[in-house]
Amino acid sequence: MTAVANTRFETFPADHITVGHTADALIMRAGFAAEVNGILTRCLLRAPIILSVGRHREWIFITQARTAMRPATWADLVRIQVGWLPVGAVVPLPEAPDAGERRWLQRPAPGECPPPWSAVVSAARSASSVCGSW
Predict the structure, then answer these.
(1) How far apart are CA 134 and CA 23, in angstroms?
(2) Is residue 52 classed as helix, strand or coil in its secondary structure?
(3) Which of 103, 114, 118, 132 is such that its CA lies 20 to 30 A from the CA of 60?
(4) Within a domain: residue 4?
(5) Residue 98: which domain range?
(6) For residue 110, is it within any domain?
(7) What is the mean pLDDT of the chain?
(8) Crossing angle of helices 71-79/117-131, nearest 10°?
């Protein structure tokens, strides 16, 4: 079992997650993100999701740390407009004073691991095939 597999949310500070060693984040448009979340749910995966409810209606999926991917996979993410943050970026959690217009859609369950980065990437790629014009 790897250190990534043992990642628990209680190890993160109460008000933010730093992208890098133990956690990561993928950012998607709200409508498309709902399709991705549906695929994850059908696969019995549950991702903590932060909603950005301001001008930019985006969902932020919290995942385990990023894994290596082929250049074609990165290109697919760009094509379907799925974003990611650079290592070291800080994601304020909705409880943070500087969180702005953010709230939880799905809170992290105590002691539960976030889904693997690759599972959320795979769900996004699958959703883009199903939806066609997303």
Answers:
(1) 27
(2) strand
(3) 132
(4) no
(5) 22-121
(6) yes
(7) 85
(8) 50
Q: Which of 102, 93, 120, 103 is nearest to 9 (CA)?
A: 93
Q: Roughly what angle, to the nearest 10 degrees, separates helices 117-131 and 30-42? A: 110
Encoded tokens for 26: 């993928």
Q: Is the pTM of this model over 0.90?
A: no
Q: What is the pLDDT of residues 3-49, one digit of tens each?
A: 334 444 554 556 889 998 889 999 999 999 999 999 999 999 999 99
Question: Which residues on neighbouring strands pair with residue 28, listed in sequence order?
Answer: 59
Q: What's the angle, vertex CA 51, arms to CA 106 and CA 123, rounded to 5?
A: 65
Alpha-carbon torsion angle 92, 103, 113, 38, nearest 10? -130
Compute CA distances 41 → 12, 34, 66, whole Å. Answer: 24, 10, 20
In a domain, 46, yes or no: yes
Domains in the chain, number: 1
pLDDT value of position 10: 53
